[in-house]
């Protein structure tokens, strides 16, 4: 694979910040009165909210090239680059909203504030960590758009950051004191990946979905192989170069630059078929047809349409609508089946209007069930590979998928993109964006 080289390199040694405050956003100004599937309806920001720019780090493999960096450090790298691409000085940012799930150290409770202060966002700006598990990156975008719609911010940074490689262990009972005996270590990474309502590991919920929807092992492995092939093709063709800001880290006294997603690996359907079941004896869900455990960050600059016009900011896309839904935790992978119709209803659009669909591949079984239930068009579904190949840094993934969709629309001249993720514990989230970028395809034709 040919690594991208033309992006400016950002060092991970830039200063990181201290502590902070946070303020919550007001609710969106308008939402439709009803939505399919019960529960709260989908929503629209209420006023025009544009995405001026987006930038992501490479997605690091578990204990890979990015594993020494905290979520705040990774987030600051992506945020600084996003501001530069948007033509926004960090001093003009009013709010930072960051999706992050596992605090890797005590400062992690202030990740959004640390990201802002690291790049020069003023102390008068607000900051908010959001945790909607795997949907956190999209939730951060929604929350920032709601702030802009409510008039509490003109320009916001939104996205997510996660370093799963640094997920801590805790010793139970130490706060109350332990006079004698051994303590029990609790693995926060395993905790994140385990249903709190008794359904077991998230992989077991994928087995539940596979059984309920008749999805075979062969179908799951074929889905995983396609994800790997599409990601490989996208990387070798340089499809992610414009999205990624390279990251420089020091290892063994030397600087190393990571500018390519680390998780994709060559495989075959035959090799995938040889892997053992990972979660249930005799099951069909394996390490090869599941998403990865990864590190990475992605941040986007959002602004009101009037603000973007007044300040002559770049315009990559527009927030159209969103939908959030709850489902049975034992079948959490089906969350998008309930969330997507809400987003489409709020937008007044159908799947036929979509030019790209980024549906998170938590597990192949889950991804296939969602696609079949909703009737996704295979040709525009995860065209550059999904989380099985590229990885799933949980707090950042939703923002990464949004960025992938926006750049795909820019490259192909498409108009609408759908982003959707299932959420552990039994939820789904969906976001619809519209491209405002000058089409790269049109530019090439004009040239």
| Low-pLDDT windows of residues | 1-37
- Which sheet architecture does the biggest sheet show? 9 strands, mixed
Q: What is the quaternary state of this protein?
A: single chain
End-to-end Cα distance, whole Å, is 28 Å
Description:
It contains 13 helices and 16 strands. It is α/β, with parallel strands linked by helices and 447 residues long. The protein has a 9-stranded mixed beta sheet, with helices on both faces. A 3-stranded mixed beta sheet has the order 1-10-11, covered by helices on one side. Strand 15 and strand 16 form a beta hairpin. Helix 3 packs across helix 12 and helix 5 crosses helix 10. The longest helix has 20 residues. The two termini are 28 Å apart. The relative contact order is 0.20.
């Amino acid at each position: 694979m040919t690594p991208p080289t033309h992006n400016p390199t950002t060092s991970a040694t830039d200063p990181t910040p201290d502590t902070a405050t946070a303020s919550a956003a007001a609710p969106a100004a308008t939402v439709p009165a009803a939505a399919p599937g019960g529960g709260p309806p989908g929503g629209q920001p209420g006023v025009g909210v544009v995405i001026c720019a987006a930038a992501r780090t490479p997605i690091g493999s578990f204990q890979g090239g990015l594993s020494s960096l905290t979520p705040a450090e990774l987030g600051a790298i992506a945020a600084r680059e996003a501001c530069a691409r948007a033509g926004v000085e960090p001093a003009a940012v009013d709010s930072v909203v960051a999706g992050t799930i596992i605090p890797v150290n005590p400062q992690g409770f202030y990740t959004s504030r640390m990201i802002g202060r690291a790049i020069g966002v003023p102390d008068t700006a607000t900051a908010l960590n959001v945790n909607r598990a795997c949907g956190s990156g999209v939730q951060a975008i929604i929350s920032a758009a709601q702030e802009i719609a409510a008039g509490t911010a003109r320009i916001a940074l939104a996205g997510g950051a996660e370093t799963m490689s640094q997920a801590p262990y805790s010793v139970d009972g130490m706060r109350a004191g332990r006079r004698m005996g051994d303590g029990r270590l609790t693995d926060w990474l395993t905790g994140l990946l385990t249903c709190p309502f008794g359904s077991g590991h998230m992989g077991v919920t994928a087995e539940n979905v596979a059984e309920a929807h008749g999805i075979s092992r062969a179908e799951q492995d074929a889905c995983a192989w396609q994800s790997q092939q599409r990601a490989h093709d996208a990387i070798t063709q340089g499809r992610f170069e414009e999205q990624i800001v390279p990251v420089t880290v020091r290892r063994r006294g030397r600087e190393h630059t990571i500018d390519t997603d680390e998780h994709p690996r060559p495989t075959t359907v035959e090799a995938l078929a040889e892997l053992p079941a990972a979660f249930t004896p005799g099951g069909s869900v394996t390490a090869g047809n599941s998403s990865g455990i990864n590190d990475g960050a992605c941040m986007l600059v959002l602004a009101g349409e009037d603000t973007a016009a007044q300040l002559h900011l770049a315009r990559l896309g527009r927030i159209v609508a969103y939908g959030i839904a709850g489902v049975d935790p034992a079948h959490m992978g089906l969350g998008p089946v309930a969330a997507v119709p809400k987003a489409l209803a709020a937008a007044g659009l159908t799947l036929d209007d979509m030019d790209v669909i980024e549906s998170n591949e938590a597990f192949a079984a889950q991804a296939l069930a969602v696609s079949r239930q909703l009737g996704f068009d295979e040709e525009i579904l995860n065209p550059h590979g999904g989380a099985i190949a590229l990885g799933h840094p949980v707090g950042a993934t939703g923002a990464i998928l949004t960025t992938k969709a926006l750049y795909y629309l820019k490259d192909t001249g498409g108009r609408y993109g759908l982003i959707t993720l299932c959420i552990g514990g039994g939820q789904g989230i969906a976001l619809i964006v519209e491209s405002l970028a000058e089409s790269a395809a049109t530019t090439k034709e004009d040239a």
